[in-house]
Amino acid sequence: MKGYGRLVAVVLLAFLGLFMAGSAHAEKEQLNAYTIWSERYANAIFSAFTKDTGIKVNWMRFSSGEVQARLEAEKNNPQVDVVFGNMAEAFVDGVQKGLFDPYRPKGAEKIPDAFKDPKGYWTGVAIDPICFMFNKEFLKDHNLNPPSSWQDLLNPVYKGQLQMADPRTSGTGMYRLLSVIQAMGEDKAYKYEKALSQNIQLYTKSGAGGALPIARGQAAGGIFFLVDALEMQKKGYDVVISYPKEGVVAGIEAMGLVRGAKHLDLAKRFLDWASTERMQKLYEENDINLIPSNPNVPVSDPALDISKIKVLPLDVEWAGKNRDRLVERWINEVLQ
Fold first, then answer.
1. H or E, element range at 132
2. CB 142 within 8 A of CB 253
3. DSSP single-letter state for residue 207
4. Which of 18, 165, 213, 286 could make an S-S bridge to 172, C-beta 3.0–4.6 Å?
5. 175-227 per-position pLDDT tens digit
6. Which region holds residue 149: left if phi is over 0, alpha if psi is between -120 and 50, else beta?
């Protein structure tokens, strides 16, 4: 009996060792990520990666400014391995603060150079222009056409009726600011933003924060990324999308490797996978309203055809390096 007991103990110990090794292996096979994409969009992408590779992704969604703040606070002890979906200029800002390491993903060769960093610090995965989104009933009740100029938003009829994102926390707010800077020049852009503030009902923390109130008629309209405006339309809300004749900036949604990533191999594996055509084809398969950065991935939705709108050129390096200065100027000259 003693021999049998020793045998059972040995078997149990061996089983326990295998279980612990398996648990450690399972723990190692988990990737940590931050994203600014909506929960529905992010879940579609990360779930597909897990299905393809077996690697679980622990992800958290924040607005663009919140992601930057977290990365800076965690710089000496990174809590995530990759950032997926943040704006390219935010990566440029992060690079100069030592938040990212360069990595050129395998499969990114087909993505045009305009949509990726030459040193490999970020790779663009989608294009998303700024647009106007207004409640159609409000326009009808006030005998208004959808706005077609930046100046249209200064109409006193919109006083206290517009909701827009705050550039301190939101990539949408930052790209609204970059759009007016590109359309008017920097000094005129801040004068415009100051005048526009007279019509603002609320500056929202996140880019899509004002979309639902506008869709429900609680506000007249606002400025959004196209991805969020189309989401409201496809949910059946009676909103109209338009663009200013002076032009808008199109944001580059990008991804990159966090400096000091604790799961470096998994992070690189994800970035490789996310650079493929297979990943960008998930947009249309999952009704994700983004324009693929890979020109080989077809787009069938006419709403995503931006060839007929005026897209203004943007120096992403300049935008990223001046990000903090531009936000600080907005605080000082628009909010105060």
1. strand 123-135
2. no
3. T
4. 165
5. 999 999 999 999 999 999 999 999 999 999 888 899 999 999 999 999 999 99
6. beta
